[in-house]
Amino acid sequence: MNRNTNTLSRFTRTATQGLSYARGAAEREHAAVITPAHLLAGLAVLPANSIAGHVLSGHGIHPDRFQPPNDAIGSQRTPLDLSVDVKRILERAAAIALERAEPSISSAHLLAGLLSNPAAAQAVTALGSAPDQLDQALNSLDDWTNEP
């Protein structure tokens, strides 16, 4: 099996939803690529029962700061590439899941990968939160895969 296909199948439903929301954020801006800021927006609008949604909202990055996600996924969508930074974030999320011996990649892994990226850390800071505090809150949780 192709490595990329294998990695994609490991995302939780919630993580996949966050990635879809990130795509929607990029589409609303008519962006050519999905950037770390789009991924941050996608994770921030996840429900509070998701790990990323819980951690972000607990540190002042609330869904109401972003446009609501567009759940309509149609075949007419224009293909969008991932920026180099987002590709690195996804690779880091997969590596973190492996390091933690967790079988799936959740919104928590995506958030951890995001926080390891300098461009994303700047976006977090611009929203009035401290990346290191988010990282500490995330790492205080034991199970990163316990989400829908």
Write the layout of secondary structure elements.
Elements: H1 3-8, H2 13-28, E1 33-34, H3 36-44, H4 51-58, E2 81-82, H5 84-99, H6 107-115, H7 118-126, H8 131-139
Helix pairs in contact: 2-3, 3-6, 5-6, 6-8
Write structural notes for this entry.
This protein is mostly helical. The protein has one domain: Double Clp-N motif (Orthogonal Bundle), CATH 1.10.1780.10. Helices cover 55% and strands 3% of the residues. It has a two-stranded parallel ribbon. Helix 6 packs antiparallel against helix 8. It is globular. The N terminus is likely disordered.
Short description:
With about 150 residues, this protein is an all-alpha fold. The chain is about 55% helix and about 5% strand. The protein has a two-stranded parallel sheet.
Strand content: under 5%
SSE topology string: HHEHHEHHHH
Q: Write down the CATH topology.
A: Double Clp-N motif
Rounded mean pLDDT is 85
The stretches of 5 or more residues where confidence is low (pLDDT under 50) are: 1-5, 72-76
**Which homologous superfamily in CATH is the superfamily?**
Clp, N-terminal domain
Number of domains: 1
Question: From the helix content, strand content and strand pairing, which structural class follows?
Answer: mainly alpha
- Given this structure, which CATH class is correct? Mainly Alpha
| Net shape | globular
Terminal CA distance: 26 Å
The rounded Rg comes to 14 Å
Main sheet strand line-up:
1-2
Count of helical segments?
Answer: 8
Q: Share of helix among residues?
A: 55-70%
Return the CATH architecture.
Answer: Orthogonal Bundle
